[in-house]
Every structure is written in C-alpha cells, then in structure tokens.
Amino acid sequence: MFRSTKPNVANFRAEYAKHADFCDALNNDTEPLYRLAFLLTANHRESEQCFVSTVEQAFDEQTVFKEWAGSWIKRRLIKTAIEIVSPASSRNCQKRDFWAAAQHDTQRECEIDAVTKLDPFERFVFVMSILERYSNWDCALLLGCSMNRVTHARMSALRRLPGLAAPFPRGDRHPLRRLGVSA
Prior knowledge:
Layout: H1 9-13, H2 19-28, H3 30-41, H4 44-60, H5 69-85, H6 107-116, H7 120-131, H8 136-143, H9 147-160, H10 162-165
Helix pairs in contact: 3-4, 3-5, 3-6, 3-7, 4-5, 7-9, 8-9
C-alpha cells in the first residue's frame, strides 16, 4: 500500500564518478585545462606538473558525483597550481615562459602572454575571478587571503590588462571566451 520514498543505496553509489567519467572529462577538455594550468603557472614545466598531478588525483578520487567530475577537475587543477606557485607568498622569482615558442601567430597567444606577465597573485586572481568566474569568497578561500586583497588584486590586474578588460564591462557578458578557458 505505501511505497518507500527512500532512494536505493546501491543506485545512489552508482552516481559517483568512475575512472571512465574522469577520463571522458579529461579527454574532452585537455586543451582548455592545460591552457588554464599555463595561465596560472606561466610556465610550461609547472603546467605539465600541475596537469599530471591533477590527473593522478582524479583517479584516486572516489567521492565526486558523476555530473561534477569536470568541475572537480578544474577546481583541483587550480588548487594544485596554487600549491606549485604559492601566489599569496612574496616569492616572485618564477621563470615565465611564452605560450608559443615562435612569434605570436594569433591574438589569443598574445592575450595569453599578456596575462602571464602579471605578478603571480594578480594572475591567479584574474584567472580565477574573471576567466573562471569564481566569487571573491572562493578566491580568498583558495588563496588563503582576505576578500579585500582579492578585490584589490583584480582591479590592479584589470588596469594592467585594459585590452582584455574591454569585453566585459557590465558583468553579464562571457569574459574572454576567445582565450578558450571557460566553457
């Protein structure tokens, strides 16, 4: 007469991401994820290290919902880049690479290199808050600093990158799609 409205526990467990789900997410977004890693680290060697570490962590993870696999990978990549670069510290002796070894063939390559010229903290804040649309709260939490410091770093980065700031003056536009980072 009465049916139980409890979800079946066996089916609930099946909703977690499996290795194949992470593989699909990584395979579909390899280029944008590597580009994100490079924008954060500004260095190809550290970008590769960040990407490989994120892949390893994805295959060890067992408590991510299937639908969240892509978002989890991106957030894990950002956390790994923060661990590698330590942008909130005063360590600024980082070696910066250009996106492409040859001269810039496209405007995208010029824009990527312009972002990587920012100081590490400003670069992380710019990429996280503008390109990835993280809130001030999330940026501050991940970077281990105050929201006030995040706000000041974003404003400073936007002043240094006036050409990149032009596409989103009113907040409802999709920032920098041409960089190919956010979906």
